[in-house]
Amino acid sequence: MRSKIAYIILVLVIGGMASCTKLDEKLGSTITKNQADSVIKVAALLVTAYDGLQLPFQDQSNYWALCEMTSDEAVAPTRGGDWDDNGVWRALKLHNWNSDHTFIGNAFTAILQLQFLATNVLNFHPSESQAAEARFLRAWSMFATLDGWGQVPFRNPGDTLLNAPKVLKAAEAADFIISELQAIIPILSDSAKAYQANQNAARALLMKVYLNRGAFLNRQSPTFEAADMQQVIALADQIINSGKYSINSNFFANFAYNNDVVGTENIFTQRNGPGYSTAGSRGGNNAFCRWAPTLHYNQDPSGWNGFTTISDFYDKFEATDTRRGGSYAGVTDVTGLKVGFLLGQQYGAGGVALKDRKGNPLIFTRELKLQETDPTTLEVTGIRVVKYPPDLTSKESRNSNNASNDYVFLRYADVLLMKAEAMLRTGDAAGALVIVNDLRVKRGATPFAALTLDNLIDERGREMYWEGWRREDLIRFGKFLDTWQLKPSDDPKYLLFPIPTSDLSVNKNLVQNTGY
């Protein structure tokens, strides 16, 4: 369906460019047939490039897993014979992966595929605005590659595919991404929907590059140059002063099936739902895999009974903090399911107490092991997490890529917290405290008496949990190698992922990261 819509739009565009030219005649002097074919081709290629975001960033077993399962926010315990997968999930949690880890290889490939798709758009004479969108997607892919692996394979448009791409080192890659984003901001739309590359999306991504540049260059001992922090603050002010966003009075509305309408914080998203995330050019699962892997089989929607968080992370929330969860209209009143963190007895429609598959009360517990073997408890251990309220608008949307929750990449609250961090790192603790406390009050939490790096990284966790930023944040704050629940302290080599063995064999420009 989407391809037909895209074609109709393109025909209208071409028709407008061709003035009164009839559709059954050869297009005249205003636009040639070859030019019309080029417009159609570029638009289709751009759609495919956007589609390339789904597999690496939405699917539960791709780059999202690398960013969250390696952190203190998410765990995928083995439950009897379920969720073992040859130990790939445990390796992420324990920080003992190697260069043949399946998810690492798949993520590296999927993210580079996005870069290829975006670069390919630039090979077909796109308009200035189309080129700007493609360059944004390319910068997004390069940022993720830099974040995960510290080096970025790169081809310019028109480079031959017969030769291996060159590889940009961290400093060169960061500088290139910065220059690209600066160049396209004036060209991108300032009124596009959140699921289209736009000026504020580029500004927010640019904030992340400046904020993390010191960590990209020295992961063990990041530095934060005042000039970079001032850029973060200035870009945040541009987004704030645009007046387009506000802190949502309902935190979970930002992630709901209709978040394209009610999500007042969303700056950059990927559009989901029938005809979009079900398109043939997309791979992997969409936002429904933010609730399916964590919910029990007997809940509605029925889940896969896998993912949890750890109790130490849950305990970072005050009882009054709305981000911890509760009822959500359109979900809880229909199926009994609450959103946020699920602990204790679970209920179904009409308040019926649910049971597990053995007939025992479905009571999620704080206790958790990486390998659950006790048959009486293995189905119920671990606090579950539902940040995206399930789409209940149809039977198909409950547990498939028909779910219409647009996937959130960049959000206004993140912009505010990044600004506060940059201010704190440049000595303005008082100004940063005002920003953080304003957010905390809106979320129902008690204001801080003072702001420190320790309570700021915790605040980022409370606000941004399961959105794919935790690993990056922990590295920047110097806490990724620390001991936490279920994970011992570990080797600095794990601050980067290894280059997959298969990629080293085909691109001699890649150099394996130290320690692998």
UniProtKB/TrEMBL annotation:
Its main location: membrane. It is found in: Cell outer membrane. Keywords: Cell outer membrane, Membrane, Signal. It holds the Pfam family SusD_RagB. This is RagB/SusD family nutrient uptake outer membrane protein. Residues 374-516 form the RagB/SusD domain. Signal peptide: none annotated.
